[in-house]
Amino acid sequence: AVVSTQSGHYGRGVYVSGLPLDMTSDGFLELLGKYGLIMEDPESEKKKYKMYTDEEGNFKGDAKCCYLKKESIPLAIQMLNGTRMAGSSGKKIKIEQAKFQMKGEFNPKLKPKKKNNKKKKNKKQENLLDWRDRAGGTDLRPKHAKIVIMKYCFDPKEFLEDATMITEIRDDIKEECEKIGPVKKVLLFDRHPHGIVSVKFGIHESAEDAVKAFDKRWFGGKQLEAWLWDGITDYAIEETAMERDARLASWHNFLGDDDEKTGDKADKAKPNRTVVSNKVIEASTDSNKDEIKEEIKEEIKAIGGNAKDIEMS
User: Fold this and answer.
1) Do the beta carbons of residue 134 and residue 146 sit within 8 Å?
2) φ, ψ of residue 183 in degrees (nearest 5)
3) Sign of the CA dihedral 190, 195, 199, 204?
4) What backbone torsions phi and psi does residue 214 show, to the nearest 5 degrees?
5) Most buried of 118, 212, 298, 312 (most Cβ within 10 A)?
6) Considering only CA atoms, which of 13, 32, 17, 37 is closest in space to residue 97?
7) pTM for the full model?
8) Per-residue confidence of the chain (313 residues) as pLDDT tens digits?
9) What is the dihedral of CA 161, 162, 167, 170, to 10 degrees?
10) Pairwise CA distance, residues 17 & 62, whole Å
């Protein structure tokens, strides 16, 4: 039971009175939800709140809810206590931290047994408030805020004429970004019409500095746009069947599938890296060439191509 004057212990709930009599459950949750996340029941996964009604089921104007974090309680009290709402007949809202008092004596035998997943579900709710980078430990910024998206870095049509430009542009961008801070990964979305490149930095500060440095900057005759990744948008572009066939033919040409026809000139043109379905594969040393060839063969088979013998020099 929720009381405000008798002895008991404080939890993470608030008791609110003076509410408009026509207030709905959704309206109450929306009002209190402005000041913190409302806890969910681990079993039913429903919000923990109650609106008090009379014997006829009419709302009496008082209600309670339980917050996920106790820090939400003083904020709700500060913002709502003493305010008036439309339809409250001039009554002021009164909000206070709820006290909980047990009715009768506690009997552990009467307590129903519940599945041992309460802690897991509570932890899931706690994670809604936890944006810490696990590697950093105390940084409250999300992980995806280390990734910078750059727009207009290239024209996809350029790669149809010279696929080696994929590597050149990616390496140029990586070199420029490393002047700002350590770079973990550069991904070039070679099929994106707006020339999108993502750069993952080692720390948040480097990513933030990169946005300032590259936004509106000119690169390769184009003015870039740069921003931090929102953690949601997927920049990969699906290819058509015709585009897939053209890409397969391009792979075979670059990887020396027809050396007898192309000769030494083709050997010189072959890059030491290739892009497979938006994945950058590096073959910079002799030790991993066999592994790279097998990976490319599997990729070609996966999309319905004919994986012939592949030679790499």
Assistant:
1) no
2) -110, 130
3) negative
4) -100, -20
5) 312
6) 13
7) 0.40
8) 344 433 444 578 999 999 999 999 999 999 999 988 899 888 888 899 999 999 999 999 999 999 988 888 999 999 999 998 887 777 899 999 987 666 666 666 666 655 556 566 666 666 655 544 444 455 678 889 999 999 999 998 888 777 788 889 999 999 999 999 999 999 999 889 999 999 999 999 999 999 999 999 988 888 999 999 999 899 988 777 777 777 667 656 655 644 444 444 444 444 344 444 444 444 444 445 565 566 666 656 655 555 554 444 4
9) -40
10) 4
Q: Which pair of structure tokens corresponds to residue 97?
A: 């931290």
Q: Show the tokens assigned to 130.
A: 């936890």
Look-up of token digits 């999108």: 196
Residues in the chain: 313
Which residue is listed with tokens 């750069």?
199
